[in-house]
Amino acid sequence: MKPDTILRSAVLAAQALTLTLALAACAGPEPIPRETPPPPVTSVAQADQQLAAVARERAAIEARFAERERVCYNKFFTNNCLDDAKDTRRRALAAQRAIEVQAAHFKRQAVVEERDRNMAAAEKRFQAEEARLAAQPAKPAPEVAPPPPPRKPTAPARAAERDARLREAQQKEAAGAAKRAANVRAYEKRKAESEERQRRVAERKAEKAAKAAKEAQDKAKAAQPK
User: Fold this and answer.
1) pTM exceeding the 0.85 threshold for the entire prediction
2) Which class for 107: exposed (0-12), middle (13-18), buried (19 or more C-beta within 10 A)?
């Protein structure tokens, strides 16, 4: 056999061995969880327990994925190893998500049913109270005593009332007379002041006219020839 043929055979054998060892290293990945339906929920307490378990399991899944990812970077076929790890993580998270959705739905449904029960109980109590009140006899309306008739005033009371009205009329008349007298005085004062103003105006006009006449006379004398 030729030397170059022997060399090529050795290289191919080495590559085959390397591939075999790499496949052996990547074989044995984490078992992929089977997609089975989550266990049924029968109580709010069980739903709370499942939600808490989902939170813990999610943290564990992320931790296992991080460890698997670190191991994959040291292997020959890194991408294949990472793909297997991601698929395992996706399936595991999907299973936990199904459990979470079922538990959360049960809790919401429990809240709605509890509210409906409370409303039905309140309506039942209301109807019972309405029936009890309707069965009771109506209370009679309280009797209202008529107002007492007005008293007839006595003779002294009538005389006192008459005197009071008379005094009130006299006071009004006196107040009106005083007001009228004040109005008269104010009118007379305004009239006198107006007449005085007119007199002063007339005096000033007469003074101006006399002054103008004197000036005209003086000018005429001055204009005469000497």
Assistant:
1) no
2) middle
